[in-house]
Amino acid sequence: MSQRRAIFLDRDGVINVNRSDYVKSWDEFIFLPRTFEALRRIAPSDFVIVVTTNQAAIARGLTTEATVRDIHARMIAAVQTAEGRIDAVYFCAHHPDEKCACRKPEPGMFHFAADDFDLDLTQSFVVGDAWSDISAAQTIGAQPILVLTGRGQEQHAQMLKENRTGFCVVDDLLSAVEWIAQQEKILL
Hints:
With 188 residues, the chain is of the alpha/beta class. 36% of the residues lie in helices and 15% in strands. It has one domain: Rossmann fold (3-Layer(aba) Sandwich). The two termini are 25 Å apart.
């Protein structure tokens, strides 16, 4: 049996509004425009849809792991109600100073997903709004896609200054899904 492929999505800034003070509760979680449409359109595909998200608010004591899990359960339920799909969520609860193997740009969360779903990371896509997402994608050999929502515009400007290349740039998650569909020659 051949390995499956995934579309990895960052959470804050890709699916929902990225707050500078962190999303600490479901009340603070606000879906970005066109997110439901994007996840509805990609739902019938053979891709495994995986969210990979750094959640340092836990290590900082601003929220709990139980609350983050509740946010993710509600996020998945809302997406399903809108006829979309998210197959799994992986999150890193560590502080950036801990230098763990799972906090993006490190590839740990992607490897966990690859093991759980028998994924070929080199045939997968990573959609994010920050260099940490793009760098992680490049590390695992996936196709990186930068969205200009969340921190995307600011991060893109910085990447241009630093001559960082090798990634696609699109407006938002729906544009990323449309770009993937075009590359894969699939109708959504």
